[in-house]
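Review this today:
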Amino acid sequence: MRVHNFSAGPAQLPLPVLERAASELTDWRSSGMSVLEVSHRGKDFTACAADAEATIRRLTGASDDYAVLFLAGGATGQFSAIPGNLTERGDTAAFLNTGQWSAKAIKEAQRQGVDAVVVADEADSSYTTTPDAGSFTVPEGARYLYYCANETIGGVAMPYVPTAEAAGVPIVADVSSMYLSRPVDVDAFGVIFGGAQKNLGPAGMDISLIRKDLLGRARADVPAIWDWKVMAEADSMLNTPPTFSIYLLGLILHWIEDSGGLAAMAERNDAKAQRLYDAIDTSDFYSNPVEKRSRSAMNIPFTLADPSLDTAFLAGAEDAGLTNLKGHRSVGGMRASLYNAMTDDGVSALIDYMAEFERTRA
């Protein structure tokens, strides 16, 4: 029986995509082989990768001014690749610190010799807020402004793109937990990147959209597989790429397109999230710590009024087919991730369970 999987990642994937992949697993495109077995240099797979890129461009509106790269190492690999491609040691870069993932990126930039200037730090709120527009200034000479658009662990999302604050400085955004969950103005960014394992496939692959004028700036010691220009020139195939991830990405992209595109995804995702937030906000038994304007539509943390009931809540949820609701170890409580593939029925089942648990335990 399929469960309702609220994991923050690796996350629930669309059932039609999984069924399609299962049906093709032993014989892909009448090759007599699995997609896991075919050559990445063969015409079938190169066409598969080209189709995935073309579909990303259609969905996002990314023009030929941007390279689309499929890279190993997930988003964390890009924490190193970004300073390696955009700075020399001693250069300045600006950062918004809104939670654990932006903090990890800051730490890695510092390890790469970057003067990482934190222009806004939400630590005082325990990372339950985002900085107000106009409340921070990017230092003169900064090579880029970096932020995490959606903090998976804390359930915090930036409610705006800081274009005015960047003042011509390239904006670099980690969009891992909200990738293709809603429309995005690609032209506002220098780099958009994220791991696939939330909305776009299995863990291990990063998908980066990089403005082409930012290519060719890599330090001499950057590994070739993380040198954006080298990888762009090789169509992400300098080495053997993550072929199965690219194949599944293509199926998921077509599923998004067939489901109405990013505008339809946003409408569905916002409706799912609002229903769960309403259930939390109208209850004295559950609470969400994030300020309302900064709430994520993808990752919704919540706590019980009596933390001693957490174990019973999770056990009952598992019995009801509601899995992976335990909050991150650093935050505690619960967390429901409502990525693109989470169904309305799944959200309804969670809300019904929460109401029944409150009725019997409050």
Notes: The chain has a mean pLDDT of 97.
